[in-house]
Specification:
Mean pLDDT of chain A: 89
Number of strands of chain B: 0
CATH class of the largest domain in chain A: Alpha Beta
Number of domains of chain B: 1
Low-confidence stretches of chain A: none
Mean pLDDT of chain B: 86
CATH superfamily of the largest domain in chain A: Response regulator
Radius of gyration of chain B: 16 Å
Structural class of chain A: alpha/beta
Distance between the termini of chain A: 192 Å
Distance between the termini of chain B: 37 Å
Helix content of chain A: 25-40%
Number of helices of chain A: 9
Strand content of chain A: 15-25%
CATH architecture of the largest domain in chain A: 3-Layer(aba) Sandwich
Shape of chain B: rod-shaped
Helix content of chain B: over 70%
Number of strands of chain A: 14
Low-confidence stretches of chain B: none
Oligomer: heterodimer
Chain lengths: ~375, ~60
C-alpha cells in the first residue's frame, strides 16, 4: 500500500468492496447462529460465531430454509460487503442448518409451524387411485431407488404409463428441482393420476431436501395425489407428512401403489371356486327340496287311493248287511202268489198256489189252512 | 256298459245303499239293489286297482 494515497470514507468503502468482490465473490461460512431476528417480516439479521469470533449476516426471509433458532449450527453462503452506514456484513445467498442436531432442530421448528398451518392434517389426505393408470415419478434416474421402484412395480402390475422427471435428490439444487418437477406435473394438460416422489436412504444431511419448507409446501399443494417414499429408518421427512400417503422405501411405494397380479389372480380363482360352490349348493338344495316334493306327491296320491279303498270297504260291509240271501240262509223264506210277495194271511185262502223261495231252492205249495192268530210262533 | 268314472259309480253306490236302508224297501227291490251294489263294488275295486297300477308305473318312470 502506498502511504501517500488518501481515500475519502466513501472511496475507501467502494475500493474495499471492489477488492472483496474480486477476491471473494462468495464465501461459505459455518458457525453457530446467534442474535437471529426477522424485521418487518422481510429482513433477516443474525450472527455466526465460534468460540472466539462473531460475524454479522444480512438476508431476506426468502432465503430462510425454515424457522431457525439461536444455537443452531448453520452453513451460509453469501457475499461479504462493507455497508456504507451499517458496517461489515455477509449478504446471504443460501443458508441451511448443518450437523445432525441442528438439522433435527430446524426440522422440528418447521414441522411445528407447518403442522399449525394444517399441512399434515389427516382430513387433507386423499385416496390414491388403485391401481393408477399414469404415474408421475420424481426421483434421480441414476439411483437404486428408481431401479427398485420400477422393478417391483413391473413384477406386481403392468400396463401403466410412467413419466419420469429426473431430479437431484440431495444437495443445494435438490429442493428447487423437486418443487419444479411437482409443479410441472401439475401443469400438464393430462396430468398423471398419482405423483411418486422417492429416494433411497441416506444421512440426515442427504435427506434434508425432503424436509425443506418449499418441498413440503409443494407436496401439500399438489392437485395430483402424492406418495412420498424416502428410505430411512428413524425420522420421517416433512414431505412425507404432507403427502397423501407415505411409504418406507421405493419398493414399498410400488407395493402400496399397485396390487400384486398373482395375488389378484389367486383371489379371482378363489372367488370363482366360491361361486361354483355356491351354485352347486343352490342346485343341491333345490334337488333335495324337489325330492321331498316328489315324496309328498307320491304319498298324497297313495293316501287318496287308500282313503277311497277304506271308504269302499266300509260300503262293502254295509252292503253285506243287506244281502237277502243271508236271511234265507238263516231259515227265512220268500212267499209269492201270482208273482207278488205275500205280506199278510188276509191275502190267502184255502187252495191258493204259493211259490216259496229258499236259499237253495224254489218250492210250489198249496194253502191248506189260514189261521189269523197274529203271526209267527206267537201263541 | 258305459265306462263311468269313480265318482259317478261311488255316488250310485251311496244311492243304492240309502235305498236298501230305507224302512219301506220291498224285498224284490232290495234283491235288485243288492245285486246292483255288488256290480258297483266290483267296478269301483277295478278302478282302484287300475289307479294303483298307474301310480306305480308313473313312479318307476320318474325314477328312471
Amino acid at each position: 500500500m502506498n502511504p501517500d494515497v488518501v481515500f475519502t470514507v466513501s472511496e475507501f468503502v467502494a475500493v474495499l468492496n471492489q477488492t472483496l468482490e474480486y477476491a471473494y465473490p462468495s464465501v461459505t461460512v459455518t458457525g453457530e447462529l446467534a442474535n437471529f431476528r426477522v424485521s418487518k417480516n422481510k429482513w433477516v439479521y443474525f450472527d455466526l460465531k465460534d468460540d472466539e469470533c462473531s460475524v454479522k449476516f444480512f438476508g431476506t426471509v426468502y432465503q430462510l430454509p425454515g424457522p431457525l433458532e439461536d444455537g443452531m449450527m448453520m452453513i451460509v453462503t453469501g457475499m461479504p460487503r462493507l455497508h456504507p452506514l451499517y458496517g461489515f456484513s455477509v449478504n446471504v445467498i443460501t443458508m441451511r442448518p448443518v450437523g445432525e442436531g441442528s438439522i433435527k432442530k430446524a426440522a422440528e421448528l418447521l414441522e411445528a409451524k407447518l403442522r399449525a398451518e394444517g399441512l399434515f392434517d389427516s382430513d387433507r389426505k386423499r385416496p390414491l387411485p388403485y391401481p393408477p393408470n399414469h404415474i408421475g415419478l420424481i426421483t434421480s434416474a441414476e439411483s437404486a431407488a428408481y431401479r427398485d421402484f420400477i422393478k417391483v412395480l413391473g413384477a406386481r402390475w403392468g400396463g401403466m404409463q410412467i413419466s419420469l422427471i429426473d431430479v437431484q435428490v440431495q444437495g443445494e439444487a435438490a429442493p428447487a428441482q423437486i418443487v419444479e418437477a411437482i409443479e410441472q406435473f401439475n401443469a400438464m394438460g393430462e396430468p398423471p393420476d398419482v405423483l411418486v416422489i422417492t429416494r433411497g436412504g441416506g444421512s440426515a444431511d442427504d435427506l434434508q431436501a425432503f424436509s425443506t419448507e418449499q418441498v413440503t409446501r409443494a407436496v401439500a399443494a399438489s392437485r395430483i395425489p402424492t406418495l412420498v417414499a424416502i428410505g430411512h429408518e428413524v425420522d420421517v421427512s416433512l414431505a412425507e407428512l404432507a403427502a397423501d400417503k407415505r411409504a418406507s422405501t421405493p419398493s414399498n411405494a410400488a407395493e402400496l401403489l399397485v396390487p400384486d397380479r398373482h395375488a389378484v389372480l389367486h383371489g379371482l380363482r378363489e372367488q370363482r371356486q366360491q361361486l361354483e360352490r355356491d351354485a352347486r349348493s343352490v342346485i343341491e338344495d333345490a334337488k333335495s327340496r324337489l325330492e321331498l316334493q316328489i315324496e309328498d306327491l307320491h304319498e298324497s296320491v297313495e293316501r287318496a287311493v287308500w282313503t277311497a279303498q277304506q271308504h269302499l270297504e266300509s260300503r262293502v260291509r254295509l252292503l253285506a248287511a243287506y244281502d237277502p240271501n243271508a236271511a234265507l240262509q238263516r231259515g227265512y223264506a220268500l212267499v209269492r202268489m201270482n208273482g207278488s210277495l205275500v205280506h199278510s194271511g188276509r191275502q190267502l185262502k184255502q187252495g191258493d198256489e204259493l211259490h216259496i223261495s229258499l236259499s237253495d231252492a224254489r218250492v210250489t205249495a198249496d194253502v191248506k189252512e189260514v189261521t189269523m192268530d197274529g203271526g209267527y210262533e206267537r201263541k | 256298459m258305459k265306462e263311468s268314472d269313480y265318482q259317478t259309480l261311488n255316488q250310485r253306490l251311496e244311492e243304492v245303499l240309502a235305498k236298501l236302508q230305507a224302512p219301506d224297501v220291498q224285498v224284490d227291490e232290495a234283491v235288485q239293489l243288492y245285486a246292483e251294489g255288488l256290480t258297483l263294488v266290483s267296478e269301483l275295486e277295478k278302478h282302484l286297482e287300475q289307479a294303483k297300477n298307474k301310480i306305480e308305473k308313473l313312479k318307476s318312470a320318474s325314477k328312471a
